[in-house]
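Quick one:
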Amino acid sequence: MFVFGSVEVPVKEPWHLGFEQRWLQLTACRRRIAYLYDQVDNSTFRYRIYNMVQAIGLTGQDVSAAWFFADEFARLQRLPDVADVLVIVRSKYTDRLNGIASAFRERGKPVFYDVDDLVFDARYANLLIHTLDQDLDHPGVWDFWFAYMGRIGAALQLCDKVIVTNPFLAGQVTELTGKTAAILPNFLNLEQVAVSDELLAAKEAAGFRRNRHYDIAYFSGSPSHRRDLDLVTATIADVLDEFPETRFQLMGFIDVPEQLKSFAARVRYVPFGDFVTLQRRIAEVELNIVPLQNNVFTNCKSELKFFEAAVVGTMTLASRTSTYQSSIADGVDGFLAAPIDWPDSIRTVLALTTGHYRTMVMTAAERCRLRYHPEMFGGSIIATLLGDDRPIVTPEPVLSAVPPA
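Output:
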C-alpha cells in the first residue's frame, strides 16, 4: 500500500438539491436543458446527469441545465414550455413519461434518450442474466429482466435521438432502432478532480513510497460482478501464495470468493462508500484490476474504472474489451489482458521498478486528467443537445417560474 500524507476527503454528495433550487437553476439562462431520471443514485445519475450539468455550467455559455425525477411529474406540467430540450436518462417506460415526451415533441422540441448499458434490447436478456450471474431457475429473475429491458427499450423508442457512452454501444442502438447515437463519454466531475489532484500530489511528494505490502484491488460497485471476478480468482490466489507481500482488496457489494478465504489475513473487504472516498481508496493501492467477461454486454461498458484510477496515480490492468483497448495504451499508461494472459500480466506489474511504475502512472494521470476533465465536455454536450437550429424559449421571471408543490 502506498504511504502518503493525510488528505481531507469531503463526503457530502453535492446533488441533493430541492425541487425549487433545481427549477431556478434550469430557468437561469436563455437556453435550457432538462434531464429526467427515475431517482438519484451514485452511478448512472452521477455520470450521466450530475457531471453533464456541471460541465454545461463550466462553459460560460447562456445555457442552463437541471435534473428532475419520476416522483416529481405532478410539478413538471410546465416543463415542456420552459425547457428547450429533454434528456431522458435510463428511465423505464410509464404513461407519464410518454406524456411528457409527447408534450416536448408537440412543441417541436427534441427528446433524447441517454443510456449507458446494453439494457434496452430484450434479445440480450439471456446474455445479461448469465453475465450478471443471476439465478437462472427463478422465474422472477426472467420476469424482472425482460420487463425491465422491455420498458427501457420502449422509453428509448419514444425519443428522437439517443446518447451513449462509447462507439460499441452506439452500434447496438443503431442495429436495434436504426437511429444514429451520439457519443458523450463518461468523465470526471470537479469534486473528483480536486481530491484526485491532492492525492496524486501527496504520492509524488512521498516518492510513491510504499509500506511492506503490495495491494491489488477489485472495485466492484455491485454484487452482479461475481463472474467477472471469477475470471481472476485463481490467479489472485496463486499470486497471494507466491508473493507473501501481496494483499487483495475487495470494495463494493460482493462476497470474498471461497478460493481466497484461506488467505483471510491478507484479503480485505472494504464497504462501498461515496464517490470521493472511492478516489482515496483507489489511491492507496498499487494495482486496480478490471476483469470483464468478453461479450456484447461487457463491451458496451465505459472505461471509467481506468480513468478514475489513473488520476490518482494507480496502475490499471483491464480485460481487452473494446472500450478498454481504445482507452489504455498497453504497456504505456496501463496494461491489457486477454483471459489467458492474466497470470503473466499481474506478475509483469509486480515486477515493475518504482521508477518505471511511476513513469507509467504519471503518464496515465496526465492524459486522463486532461481527456476526462469536465471542462472538455460542456461544449460537446451543448452542441449535441441544442445545436444552432434549436428553438429558444423566452425567459420568465425567475421567482414566478417555480411550479407549486
